[in-house]
Amino acid sequence: MTAALGPYGVLVDVHDDGVFDDWEAKQGLRCLLCGNKVEPQIPVGGKGSETFDHALLKHWTRDRLEHYGLSDATVEPHIGDQFPDVYGTKNGIAYAVEVQWSHLDLDTARARTEGLRAAGCDRVVWLTRHCNWVEKLPAAGVSDFRPATRGGYELHTGVLRHQPARRGPGTRMAVARWPLDRFLRDWTSSSTDELAWAYSTATTAGWATVTDWEQHTKDQAHEIATKKRQLAEALAERDQLRTDLRTARATANSHAEKIDEQAQTITDQVRTLGEQDGTIADQKKAIGRAVAENDRLTSAAKKLLALNSQAEEGRKKSAAEIEQLTRTAARLTNTCIVFAVLCLVLAIGWVIWLA
After folding, report:
1. Across the strands, what pairs with 179?
2. Residue 88 — left, alpha, or beta (φ > 0 → left; ψ -120 to 50 → alpha)?
3. How far apart are CA 122 and CA 58, in angstroms?
4. How do residues 199-214 score in pLDDT, each as one tens digit?
5. DSSP summary character for residue 191
6. Among candidates 84, 68, 90, which has minimal Cα distance to 182?
């Protein structure tokens, strides 16, 4: 593994200087792709004695707490039913430090924290090598349990500072690297800028100065006010959309009623057309019969016209023949008259001659 996600979703790249030393063989990292737990491997040569490093940090912490005013700072005293690694008081405030080398699950760590508080420890902090739950409890991740190699103990996660967001406008609480000595000084300080543990998001928390938390709270208040305004605008828009929707529904219902009426009218018209189709079919049959009868009559009329034409031609022919006979008869009559006159003349002549 060369890159992973650390607490608070911070990208951890072991190629960067010092990062491998912070995270080698420690828990608290997640795969960038699947989100499963991953950890860098300890290089060849390994680490020193875990017991010695653990004990050294506990005693070093006790000495620094004494330096910052906890006169009764003690390693592993009996407090209630528990034995915190370091315990002390200052100005009536009880402090407990748990130095955790090996892996510890969140539920156990939370139970021990609640047990220390129930026993009277006002402030509890975990200095842990593994960082599985550093953003869930008052804890901070120690970079290296061998301070001689780094010039002092250093915290590489768990402490936050207020700074501008990486992307877009606004601010955020980002992970900061702090010397452990400074952390213990400010943690036990009663100044107005002492360290406080609080939630930076709904699910993650960390240590930051009161000033940073005030600025973060101010930004959150501004963001909440902005969100409220946006919510009010969205609600107003929603109400308008609801009104528009009701109007649209009423219009749609009105249209639906009209459509139903029109559908019924069309249904009636279709039924009427169906009935008319039957009448039209009967009319078509009657018309067909009338057309056939007309065709028959037309054919008969044509035949009569043909016969009439033939009769007209016969009449004309007969008339011509009658006219011809009339002329012939007239000539015969004239001839007869002329013959009769001749005969009369002859008879008269004959009589006269005889006389």
Report:
1. 154
2. beta
3. 19
4. 988 899 999 998 898 8
5. S
6. 68
- pLDDT tens, residue by residue, 136-188: 999 999 988 876 555 589 999 999 999 887 666 667 889 999 999 999 999 99
Closest CA to 112 of 93, 99, 129: 99
What is the helix, strand, coil percentage profile of the chain, to 5?
A: 55, 20, 25
Q: What is the mean pLDDT of residues 7-19?
A: 65
pTM of the model: 0.59
Q: First and final CA of the chain: distance in angstroms?
A: 188
Token look-up 């130095």 returns 99
Separation between Cα atoms, residue 142 and residue 56, nearest integer Å? 13
Give the residue among 113, 54, 116, 111 at the shortest CA–CA distance from 82. Answer: 116
- What are the C-alpha distances in Å from 168 to residues 165, 228, 281? 7, 20, 80
